[in-house]
Write a structure and sequence with these properties.
about 90 residues, alpha/beta, 3-stranded parallel β-sheet, 3 strands, about 35% helix, about 10% strand
């Protein structure tokens, strides 16, 4: 869960223009809204591979407590950072 945030911090620290960075595969990499918010605060785009596809959501350490697609899409802090590949 921490690697997307760590990667975005490395890019930011190296001087990358975070408005040109998309962190991908978040469907299967980030499991909490707090982590998504922390990632979005860095200014990068959040990319999901499959809205509505629950294959990657099944069981992560026995926890099934993730924001739904609608919650992510309409969250005031996340909505403008989402990129959806359909």
């Amino acid at each position: 869960e921490g690697s997307p945030l760590e990667m975005s911090q490395v890019l930011g620290d190296a001087g990358a223009d975070m408005s040109h960075v998309a962190v991908g595969h978040l469907d299967r990499e980030v499991y909490s809204l707090k982590s998504l918010l922390d990632l979005a605060k860095g200014g990068c785009y959040l990319q999901y591979d499959g809205f509505g596809d629950t294959v990657f959501y099944s069981l992560h350490l026995g926890v099934y407590d993730r924001p739904s697609d609608i919650q992510r899409q309409h969250h005031p802090a996340l909505g403008s950072f989402l990129v959806v590949n359909l």
